[in-house]
Specification:
By secondary structure, this protein is mainly alpha-helical. Helix content is 70%, strand content 0%. The chain has 3 domains: 58 residues, no CATH class; 94 residues, Serine Threonine Protein Phosphatase 5, Tetratricopeptide repeat; 64 residues, no CATH class.
Length: 281
Amino acid sequence: MPRIAYKIFLLCGLLLSACLLLSACATSDEGKPISFSLTAQQNYERGLAELKAGHFPEAARYFAYVKQKFPFSKYAALAELAAADTEFERGTYQEAIDAYKSFLRLHPKHEKVTEGYISFRIAQAYVKEMPDDWFLVPPSSEKDQSAVMDALREIDALIDHYPDSKYLKQARENRRQVLRRLIDHEVYVARFYLDRGHPKGAILRIKEALRRYPDSGRDAELLLTLGETQLEMGLPAAAKQTFQRVSLDNASAIEVKRAELFLEFIKRRHGDEPKDNPTHG
């Protein structure tokens, strides 16, 4: 079977499986029959048990019942939060974000707000919403980055507003993941400009990435790309300065070696005091 035909065959199979799965999920949205208890606490705890077991429709119904029947109980707010957690755990992240933000507006002094939990879960939901790399589709770096930017905004808000939160460690790990995605996208866009003969656009994009994401851990990669672009444009003096910025403080040994090789090339070709002579308009 030709390679393209084989890929199409696999894709059709995957799409069919996904449709069958969605169909099965759609028929079970109501979940199994449940019976409500007399008190808010009992219904709330039953909802938590269903949530822990992964029975999301049942959990959601218990939490909705608590909010509706016991609006002045302390469990009403807890059920509202648990309903947001249910949306998160079932993978409906936009619904979870909306629910967490609603909780934040209605209960700004709640413990789960002041300890940073709500902000952390909103950020996590945006991280989960970030595009993935998947078979036969463009890589994530080529897709819309709105969710990635949203994730970075929420993570930074958590770090700024809740500096003592116990969720900061995980938030900082998420931040590194988010920055990797953003840098991948910036490199993709820069190379897009380069491939189409617009090196100035590439340079502007890389410089902006270096300015906006100084703690990305990808400085060396960006600097190497910037230096190569400057060389292509006939700017050996600018390229020399760029490659000199690559050091062991921000790069791997391999990246440092690459920078050294470029510097040796510039010295051989242009001397110790290279002069810029742009070759691209």
